[in-house]
Amino acid sequence: EHISNMGKNSNKAGTWSTNLFKTRLNHPPDWPEMISGLAYAPFRPGQSPYKQIFPTRDQIRDDLLLLRSVTRNIRTYSVEGTLMHIPELAAELDMTVTLGVWITEDEKHNARELLKGVELTNRFSSVRRLIISNEVLLRDDIPVDLLVHYMQTARRAVNVPVSTSGDADLF
Question: Is there a contact between 71 and 38 (Cβ–Cβ < 8 Å)?
Fold first, then answer.
């Protein structure tokens, strides 16, 4: 149906626009060869940081080998358990990491995560940024001043940018 005839029959106009919409859905835009970066959490079915069941080092390596075909940059959320191997494995595969440190209401946990995050950041050149927490303020786990303290502590200890991640509505 020619576009100039659309107004003459509203049913045809509706059909034309529906078909145009369906055509667009069937032809997604080209996917770029390389993606600038991806968020990465290596957990498989049955694995969970809440259950303290972590992927193996080999599983993480296999994941990174797959991801490497589409990106060289990953962002993580924690350094707990075997997740601490991500910066080393990424370095071996010529990938970079925005390293996440998971912050909760548990100050002992936070101290361990911060210490390990700083250690890994200083040890592996693959770590290009350090993220202190993910949506910790949204979850209301800690007060803002404690998050600021954690970030200032990390900034004094590393030579990469340090930030936090959260919902934009909070800022």
Answer: yes
Say whether both 65 and 119 belong to one domain: yes
CA 108 to chain CA centroid, Å, is: 24
pTM metric for this prediction: 0.80
Are 58 and 138 contained in the same domain? yes
For 4, the domain range is 1-30
* pLDDT tens across the length of the chain (171 residues): 444 454 555 556 566 666 666 666 667 677 788 999 999 999 999 999 999 999 999 999 999 999 999 999 999 999 999 999 999 999 999 999 999 999 999 999 999 999 999 999 999 999 999 999 988 888 888 999 999 999 999 999 999 999 999 876 655
Q: Indicate the number of domains in the chain.
A: 2
Same domain, 163 and 80: yes
